[in-house]
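Lab manual, section 2.4: Encoding a predicted structure.

Procedure: take the sequence of the chain (328 residues), apply the prediction step described in section 2.3, and record the output as C-alpha cells. A sample record is shown.
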Amino acid sequence: MMNLITDIEGVAVGHATDLTLGSGVTAIIFDAPAVASGSVLGGAPGGRDTALLDPSMTVQTVDAFVLSGGSAFGLDAAGGVQAGLREIGRGLEVGSTRVPIVPQAILFDLLNGGDKNWGLHSPYRDMGYEAFRVAAKGAFALGSVGAGAGATTATLKGGLGSASAMTSKGIKVAALVAVNALGSATVGDTAHFWAAPFEKEDEFGGLGLPTHFSEQDRALRLKGVDLKATTIGVIVTDATLTKAEAHRLSIMAHDGFARALLPGHLPADGDTVFAAATSRKPATDFAGFMELCHLATQVSARAVARGVFEATSLPFAACPPSWKDRFG
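Recorded output:
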C-alpha cells in the first residue's frame, strides 16, 4: 500500500494548483458511483450539495468529491468537475439526461498573501475541470498542492495529507485531508505532532510525543480571532456500507481531527468530512464495522499530520513557515 487514498481501488485523485493565486483544487473521482454521506462539525462551513449527504435524503451515491480553497468563490470548482464527468457520460440518470453528483467543501485561504485579484469570474471552475482532467490512480503529491496549496495553521503552513490502513479482515480505509486549521497540528512551539501516537513508519518525522507537556504547550494558539479557517477531508473504504454507516464513518474521521489538531471544530472553523464506500468488498459484521470506524479515526489524524509535514511555505509575508523550514 502507498499510504494514500488511492490505495482504495476505483479511486483517482487530481490536483489543480496555482501558487501565485495561493490556492488550488483537489478532485476525488470514483470509477463507479459510491455510497456516500458526510458530516459538518465546524461552526463556519462552506459546501455544495452537502445536504443530500444526510442519511435521510434520497440520493445514495456520488460520482466525485471536491476539496477546494477560495472560500465561497471556490464553490465554482464543483461545476468544473461536473462538466468533466458529464463529458464522459457520468451522472445520476434523470429522465433522458444525467446529472453528475459532486459534493464539495471549501476552505478559507483568501488572506494568505496570494494574488486574489482574478477579475470578474473566479478561476475555480476551470481549476476544477483541470483537477478532473488530470485525476489518476496511484501516487499523487501531498503538501502545498491542490486544496492544500494555500492552507495554513496557527503556527505552520498547512497542506494536503493522506493515509491508509487495513482491517484484520482485509478491508481498506483511507483519508485525504486539506489542513487549514484555525488551531495547531503541533504541540506548542515544538516539532512534535499531536497525532504522534498514531504515526506509522515515520510518515511525519517519527518524533513521537514530548516527554512532558507544559501549560504553554496546552495554551490556545490561533492564527486569528476573526479569521475563517477549516479542515476538510474525505474518508473512503472499499467495504460495502449503507448510507447511515458512511455517515458514522465521517463522524469517526472527525474524531481524528480532534486528535490531530488543538483546538478543532471551532466556531470559525468549517470542519467537514465526506465519506464514501466503493463496495468492492462484502459488507462486514458489526464488530468489523467498529474496527473500520476505529481505523477511520487514525487515518484521519495521520493525514492531518502528513499534510502539515509535507507542506512547503509560499513566498508571501502572510504565509507562515513550513514544518520543514522551522524544524528541518
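Check your result against the sample. Residues 4 and 163 are 5 Å apart (CA to CA).
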